[in-house]
């Protein structure tokens, strides 16, 4: 099992940037793919980005492609989400989630961190 804790959320002006961090503990971090999801009030959960266990491949949701970058540092057991050119519609609670190698779903989730973009 792995435990995840997000941090780095806050209030930012439209057009600005934030960097979120997901810290992992409890198991071998390099065995897990990690993704970021977000949930805004009144909306369904939305996929943001994912990175494979070794960091060789990344994918992004259409709404954030070209603006957000996911990365990982397995030596420090962290995954980051660099968010640039933020828009008001990026306002949401952001969650990181982990999927064990060989599985097909994200079984482990953090508590979330709030991102608010003012316009």
Description of the molecule:
The chain has 119 residues and is mainly β. Helices cover 0% and strands 53% of the residues. The protein has no helices and 11 strands. It has strands at 3-7, 10-13, 18-25, 32-39, 46-51, 58-60, 68-73, 78-83, 92-100, 108-109, 113-118. Strands 2, 4, 5, 6, 9, 10 and 11 form a 7-stranded mixed β-sheet that branches. Strand 9 and strand 10 (108-109) form a beta hairpin. The chain is globular.
List the helices and strands and how they pair.
Elements: E1 3-7, E2 10-13, E3 18-25, E4 32-39, E5 46-51, E6 58-60, E7 68-73, E8 78-83, E9 92-100, E10 108-109, E11 113-118
Parallel strand pairs: 2-11
Antiparallel strand pairs: 1-3, 3-8, 4-5, 4-9, 5-6, 7-8, 9-10, 9-11
Cα-to-Cα separation, first versus last residue: 40 Å
Uncertain ranges: none
Strand content: over 45%
Based on CA atoms alone, the radius of gyration comes out at 13 Å
Structural class: mainly beta
Reading the helices and strands in chain order gives: EEEEEEEEEEE
What is the number of beta strands?
Answer: 11
Q: In this structure, how is the largest beta sheet organized?
A: 7 strands, mixed
Q: How many helical stretches? A: 0
Mean pLDDT: 97
């Amino acid at each position: 099992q792995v435990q995840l804790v997000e941090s780095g959320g806050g209030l930012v002006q439209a057009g600005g940037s934030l960097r979120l961090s997901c810290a992992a503990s409890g198991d071998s971090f390099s065995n897990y793919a990690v993704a970021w999801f977000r949930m805004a009030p009144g909306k369904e959960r939305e996929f943001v980005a994912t990175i494979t266990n070794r960091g060789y491949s990344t994918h992004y949701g259409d709404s954030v492609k070209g603006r957000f970058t996911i990365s990982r540092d397995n030596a420090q057991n962290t995954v980051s989400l660099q968010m640039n050119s933020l828009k008001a519609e990026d306002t949401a609670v952001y969650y990181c989630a982990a999927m064990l190698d060989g599985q097909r779903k994200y079984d482990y989730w953090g508590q979330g961190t709030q991102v608010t973009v003012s316009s």
